[in-house]
Structures are given as C-alpha cells and as structure tokens.
C-alpha cells in the first residue's frame, strides 16, 4: 500500500480512523501518480489510497474525488476553479516575502507555478519554522472548503478575499503540498489522471473493501473487479453527480448502485455522440443487416430538455450547462408541445435559429448572436425553433435501454408539432445509396449540415450516454470524400497581424487535447476564414488571456512559437482539406508516428464553439483516427 500510517508519520501527520484525511496523504498519492506514466501503476496508487479513505475516513471521500478531478461541485453546475495567474503570483509573493516580479521571473524559468510555489516556500526558513504545529497541518476538508469558497467568491472585493484565502492555505503548506495546491487552484493538476481512471479506481476500491468480496474464489474476484468499473462508468454517464453517487456507494456498494442512481430529470446526462463518416458506402457498410433511419442534421445547438415532476422545465447544453435562463422562449414552446398527460420527461433536441417570416432555418451564426445571460423574453431578437430527435425519459421511467424505434414512437405520441416553434426532426427510413443521396441533397437545401444515420432496432439502438457511438453516424455534406468532419480546436497562441491586420492578431496557433497526458498538442497555424469583425472579436477576447510564457501543458515545437501565448480558454470549429504527418506539430504524437505529430492542411475558421470547454476539444485519438480514415473508403 502506498500511503500507510508510517508514511504519514514521515510527513508529520497521523491519519487515524475517523479523523479528516491529511492533505499530505492526498499529495503523496498525487506525487506517486505523477512519477509514472504507466496506467496500471497509476490505478494501483489511486485505488490503494481510495481503500484507505473508505476504511479510515469515508466522510471525506467526496471531497477527495473532487480534488482528484479539480472540481468543487458537479460538472453540470459549471463552476470553474481556474484562478488567474496574476492572483496566484500575488499570493505566492506575499507569503514568501518576494516581489511579484521575482515570482514571475522564476515562472518564466521553471514553467510551472506549482513548482515555483513549492521551491520558494521550502526556501523560506522563517515560515517553515511554523510547521510541525499539528493544528496548522492541512486537511482535505480544509483545502476543499477553501477552494469551494474561492470558486464561489464574486463581487468587487472578491479578488482580495481570494488572495487572503490562498495565502492562508499556502502558509499551512509543507513539502509537496504547495505544488499541488497551486496547480489545483490554476484548475490543472497535470498528473495524468483522467476521469475514467478515477472511476475505475473508485469502483475497485469499493469492491476490495467489501467483506463479501474477501470470501470469494479467485476467478469470481477477478470478475467483480472487471464488472464494477463498468457499472460505475455507466451510472456516472446517466447521472454525472458524485454528490449522489458517493453516498449511495458508501451505503450499499457498487453492485446495488443502479438501484439508487439512475437518470433523473433535473440532472443532465452526458449526451450520446455521433461517429464521423465520409461516404454513403461507409454508412451502408456499417448499418448493413439493421433497420436504420436518416435524419436531417440541423445546425444549431443541442438542447436537452428536462421536465421535472414538480412542474419545472430546464434546458441543458451539450456540455451539461444549465441554459434555462438563456432560452426562456424555448421553455414556453416546449410546454405547449408536450401533451397534457405528460408529467416528466427528458427530450433530446436541437435548438435552431428560425426565420418567422419565411418559415425556414437560419444558419448557426445567427443563433450565436443571442445573448447568453439575463435574457428577457421581450428583448429576444433571434427566434428559435426546436427540433426533437429522441426521448430518454417519460413519466417516471428511463427509456435509455429501449430501441430507438420505441423511443421515437413514444416521442411522437407524447408531443405535438407546433408550426414555427416545435418540430420532430425530418427523417426518412432510406434503404439504398440513391435514396440517401437524395435525402442528403434535400437536407443541404434546407440549410442543414447533412444527415445523421441511426440504427433503429435491437440492442444496438439503445441510447448510449457519453459514447461516440457507431450506431449514430454523421454525414456532413462538405466532408464527403475528405476529412469526414470538422475539428474543434483550442486557440493557444497568436501571431501579430501585418498589413491591414496590424491592430489585431493576424493568425493563431491551434491545438487538440490529449486527455491521457493532460496536454494541448499543437496542430496548425490558422489565418483563413476570419472576417474583419471575427478578428476584432478574437482580439478583444483573447488579449485578456495573453501570457508571456506557455503553460507547461502545451506541447509545441520551437519552430511554431507564436508571438503571444494564451491561457487555453476557447474552442474553435475548423475545417481542413486534409491531415498530414508533420515534423513540427505535435497533435497525436506517438500515435501514428513515434516522434512526429499530425497537422491540418489548409485550415479554415468556421465558428466559435461556446458549448465546448477546452478539455472537450477534439482529442489526439480522434485526430489520429481522422488521419487514418483518410485512406479508407475514399470515393
Ligand atoms: P460531437 O458532438 O460529435 O463532439 P460536434 O459537437 O462538432 O461533435 P457535430 O459533429 O456537429 O457536433 O454533430 C453532433 C451534433 O449534431 C449533436 O450534438 C446535435 O447537437 C446536432 N444534431 C443536429 N441534428 C441532429 C439529429 N437529427 N440527431 C442528433 N443530433 C443532431
């Protein structure tokens, strides 16, 4: 076991049953995880730590999970830690008696503010003499509660209060603690701990600490260890709330988790995603032997509408953000469309901008001009229409395991079309290439992006929360025979403009995300597709995010160094002619070629993706897959 009582004594803390977990114990685990890149070793460290927590201090398990994931509440509440660099520098400078400039210089040299804090902290003799005082030792609940407080502080004096709170934590830090504390406050732990790994370890720790498990024969033990992570992962994709899952686990273990935690109106589930394709033949090969349907792929934003039994209606975005205040008009429309005998439901829709005079769809760009906050119905200038495509929950019952054919029938029976306000997506049960081609042409004429092709019957047509499933295929008109899809990339740097672009940035450096290494990998420089007003908007937004040095989690080559770096904060949808192997870009490095990455040829800016966080950008695995698929099925 990694962290035992002796280890804790070494760092001057006891960890006794029933007492709060020392923050040092968590940091020791982080350190161990950071020291290896081997997935199994990482899992071993974390599982062993979770076992300790379950046995000694189960009441801290929830806080521990949040600290491992760098969050302070469920993902769908959208509270970001991400304290700005200058605030952290101020706090570090004051606690260690240095000037902010000194801390900045050190940051430029080391590249990691966590390390800077640790090094400057450990060199401060006068302050470290305060350590050893047991009352001052940090505990997990103390750190977690402070972080939560910091995340929720707002208002004009909040900056000062945040600095004070951070200083209080820093003063009580020792050893490796400042490093992880600062990284957590930055919103990036950077120890290579993906959420899927956390879920696996959590499941396995609950299995091995269960007394029944200890009595099982070896083969049965192995089976339990394989099954448990599947249960937790599937429950989490339906109900992404540790606030609900952890108490249920502590009460009744993993095996009974599904009985306590399932899809619940009011809590957004992770949406099912589609797999890109680039030819009708590829689509037909995949769906062969199945009943399938083709639907228009509307160009708006996803809306997951929840009606709760208490009568409230909410709408969530693709990344689970509560958009109810953004779309008061949608709430009204959907309430009219639901038939009277419906008291609770979860409906998957696309919200699209709509021309009330011409009665047709408007492009996404029009939708994106709508206000996001404090929307008053009377002031809404862009009308929207809802296009429903799936029903996931109805009158107290989850429909996730039902076939799409059944879900669709229930949807048709439970809602009614309302001109200009609510429609079911246009669909056709096509059977051959010609029919699909004709329907695709029709979709494009109607201002849609192309088609979604979905398996209709059998087990494979169940709704798979959070999965990019091959049972849903997207066929985008622009991508036939090409890359197959647009990419959603993070802007990490910019180059000063020339000629008529001197007052704005002229080109940008983009990156994809690699969740395994928790890093952004550069993929291309982009200077095309921007209108003058786009460039102005980007400049005004991004100049606030400038950093003199790149974050250590940006993987780039000197040859592509931009004039300014940014805090990764915005996702852009980008089109490209194709993907190629590159000696200077780092996307998917090691996946297709051992040392070279992949880059985009002729990238073109499409739009800002406000509904995706930087960590939800196209992953390096997807980039590698798009690269490899270029050579298949090209016709
Ligand atoms: P992804 O969601 O696959 O990561 P993305 O966000 O770029 O990629 P798209 O490639 O545009 O999304 O395709 C999926 C999205 O298409 C869905 O999330 C949904 O918002 C939208 N959509 C439009 N019409 C439909 C439909 N008929 N069925 C399902 N989704 C649809």
UniProtKB/TrEMBL annotation:
EC code(s) of this entry: 6.5.1.1
Main location (coarse class): nucleus
Biased segments, Polar residues type: 617-635
Catalytic reactions on record: ATP + (deoxyribonucleotide)n-3'-hydroxyl + 5'-phospho-(deoxyribonucleotide)m = (deoxyribonucleotide)n+m + AMP + diphosphate
GO biological process: cell division; DNA biosynthetic process; DNA recombination; DNA repair; Okazaki fragment processing involved in mitotic DNA replication
Residue intervals of the ATP-dependent DNA ligase family profile domain: 377-514
Alphabetic keyword roster: ATP-binding, Cell cycle, Cell division, DNA damage, DNA recombination, DNA repair, DNA replication, Ligase, Nucleotide-binding, Nucleus
Highest taxon listed in the record's lineage: Eukaryota
Cellular compartment(s): Nucleus
UniProt-recorded Gene Ontology molecular function terms: ATP binding; DNA binding; DNA ligase (ATP) activity
Keyword set includes Nucleotide-binding: yes
A cellular component term, taken from the record's GO annotations: mitochondrion
Disordered: region residues: 611-635
The protein's enzyme class: ligase
Similarity section: Belongs to the ATP-dependent DNA ligase family.
Record-given protein name: DNA ligase
Organism: Glomus cerebriforme
Lineage: Eukaryota, Fungi, Fungi incertae sedis, Mucoromycota, Glomeromycotina
């Amino acid at each position: 076991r990694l962290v035992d009582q002796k280890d804790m004594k070494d760092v001057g803390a006891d960890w006794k049953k029933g007492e709060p977990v020392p923050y040092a114990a968590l940091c020791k685990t982080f350190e161990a995880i950071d020291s290896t890149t081997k997935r199994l070793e990482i899992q071993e460290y974390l599982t062993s730590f979770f076992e300790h927590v379950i046995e000694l201090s189960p009441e801290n398990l929830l806080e521990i999970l949040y600290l491992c994931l760098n969050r302070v509440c469920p993902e769908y509440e959208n509270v970001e830690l991400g304290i700005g660099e200058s605030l952290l520098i101020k706090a570090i400078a004051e606690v260690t008696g240095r000037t902010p400039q000194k801390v900045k210089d050190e940051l430029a040299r080391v590249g990691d503010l966590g390390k800077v804090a640790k090094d400057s902290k450990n060199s401060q003799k006068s302050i470290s003499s305060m350590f050893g005082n047991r009352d001052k030792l940090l505990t997990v609940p103390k750190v977690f509660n402070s972080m939560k407080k910091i995340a929720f502080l707002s208002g004009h004096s909040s900056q000062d209060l945040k600095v004070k709170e951070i200083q209080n934590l820093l003063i009580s830090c020792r050893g490796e603690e400042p490093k992880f504390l600062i990284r957590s406050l930055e919103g990036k732990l950077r120890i290579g701990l993906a959420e899927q790994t956390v879920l696996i370890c959590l499941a396995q720790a609950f299995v091995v600490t269960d007394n029944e498990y200890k009595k099982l024969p070896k083969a049965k033990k192995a089976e339990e260890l394989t099954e448990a992570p599947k249960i937790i992962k599937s429950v989490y994709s339906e109900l992404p709330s540790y606030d609900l899952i952890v108490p249920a686990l502590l009460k009744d273990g993993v095996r009974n988790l599904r009985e306590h935690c399932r899809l619940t109106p009011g809590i957004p589930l992770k949406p099912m995603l589609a797999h890109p394709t680039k030819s009708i033949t590829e689509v037909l090969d995949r769906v062969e032997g199945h009943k399938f349907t083709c639907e228009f792929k509307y160009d708006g934003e996803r809306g997951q509408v929840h009606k709760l039994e208490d009568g409230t209606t909410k709408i969530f975005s693709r990344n689970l953000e509560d958009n109810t205040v953004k779309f008061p008009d949608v709430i009204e429309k959907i309430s009219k469309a639901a038939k009277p005998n419906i008291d609770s439901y979860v409906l998957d829709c696309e919200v699209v901008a709509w021309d009330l005079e011409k009665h047709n769809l408007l492009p996404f760009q029009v939708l994106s001009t709508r206000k996001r906050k404090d929307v008053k119905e009377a002031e809404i200038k862009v009308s929207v229409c809802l296009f429903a495509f799936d029903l996931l929950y109805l009158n107290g019952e989850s429909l996730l395991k039902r076939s799409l054919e059944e879900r669709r029938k229930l949807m048709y029976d439970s809602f009614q079309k309302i001109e200009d306000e609510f429609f079911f997506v246009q669909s056709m049960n096509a059977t051959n290439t010609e029919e699909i081609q004709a329907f695709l042409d029709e979709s494009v004429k109607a201002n849609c992006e192309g088609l979604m092709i979905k398996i209709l019957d059998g087990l494979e047509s169940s709704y798979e929360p959070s999965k990019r499933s091959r049972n849903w295929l997207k066929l985008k008109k622009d991508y036939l025979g090409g890359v197959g899809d647009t990419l959603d990339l993070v802007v990490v740097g910019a180059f000063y403009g020339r000629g008529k672009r001197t007052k704005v940035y002229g080109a940008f450096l983009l990156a994809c995300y690699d969740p395994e290494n928790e890093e952004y990998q550069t993929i291309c420089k982009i200077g095309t597709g921007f209108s003058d007003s786009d460039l102005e908007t980007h400049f005004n937004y991004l100049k606030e995010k400038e950093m003199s040095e790149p974050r250590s989690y940006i993987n780039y080559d000197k040859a592509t160094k931009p004039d300014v770096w940014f805090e990764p904060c915005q996702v852009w949808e980008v089109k490209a002619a194709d993907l190629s192997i590159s000696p200077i870009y780092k996307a998917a490095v090691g996946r297709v070629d051992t040392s070279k990455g992949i880059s985009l040829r002729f990238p073109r800016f499409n739009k800002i993706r406000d509904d995706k966080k930087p960590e939800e950008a196209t992953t390096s695995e997807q980039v590698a897959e798009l690269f490899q698929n270029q050579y298949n099925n090209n016709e």
